[in-house]
């Protein structure tokens, strides 16, 4: 197996599901409806050129291929050369390499993507890692043709964190709230309140799109709650190997950093049966869907 060396590809291809097949399945069950909603709102037509910004392993871009037809094109862009290599591999396996282009570039600049060269721009959970979001929106506007359209999804972590204070790893943590608070502190250190992941909300997305010049902007904030754990069926040991984002430790590392051995034992005594039996789940999400257009 080729060694994964950059943090983006390591997280996306391994750490976000801890290398566990069932955890990957649960991740995709969560992501596929998001993909479908972003694609539906994009309104990509046959023959369109679609840019997938921060493409990762191509969830949005490959999803758009059937929409643009044989005459359409998909441009995959990402800061990770390894992820672009993975997308190129997938495109080859699908027999669609001639319909795809791969551009190593950051969302803030989209260097290598020409002005007014794409009809639709898609992105999912990318702006949460971008410090200069205004520059990213300006780049989005620059590369769109007149009449072009963006369709974005971003978790609003500022709200999501507060909504889930009484949970840990997607399970009710009320009986061990003192321990859960310590573990939460570790994750908060990896995502400070004024950083790119936490320092914005849905109103900022609206303002950023306006300032970049977009029109017909819609921002939908969606709050949801489910009593199904996000990794239902995944055992305790596998769960501890999962990291919630590329900047964060794994769940197991966070427990080790936050708690004494005695505290960690108390946490496991309470939480492990819930995880292993798939009980006591409670996960709340705060997500924003954004669409906007560049005037024709």
Report on the structure:
- The protein is 43% helix and 21% strand.
- It is built from 11 helices and 9 strands.
- It has helices at 7-15, 21-42, 59-68, 81-94, 133-143, 157-163, 177-190, 202-212, 236-240, 251-258, 261-277; strands at residues 49-53, 73-78, 100-104, 118-124, 144-155, 167-168, 171-172, 215-226, 283-293.
- Helix 4 (81-94) links the parallel strand 2 and strand 3 (100-104).
- Helix 2 crosses helix 3 (59-68), helix 5 crosses helix 8 (202-212) and helix 7 (177-190) packs across helix 10 (251-258).
Question: What's the Cα radius of gyration?
Answer: 20 Å
Total separate domains = 1
String of helices and strands: HHEHEHEEHEHEEHHEHHHE
CATH class: Alpha Beta
Question: Which architecture would the CATH scheme give at its second level?
Answer: 3-Layer(aba) Sandwich
Distance between the termini: 48 Å
Number of helices: 11
Task: Label the overall shape.
Answer: globular
What can be said about the biggest beta sheet? Answer: 7 strands, mixed
> Mean pLDDT score, rounded?
94
Helix content: 40-55%
Query: What would CATH call the homologous superfamily?
Result: Vaccinia Virus protein VP39
Structural class, by secondary structure, is: alpha/beta
Strand order of the largest sheet: 3-2-1-4-5-9-8
Number of strands: 9
CATH topology: Rossmann fold
Residue fraction in strands: 15-25%
Q: Uncertain spans, ≥5 residues at pLDDT below 50?
A: none
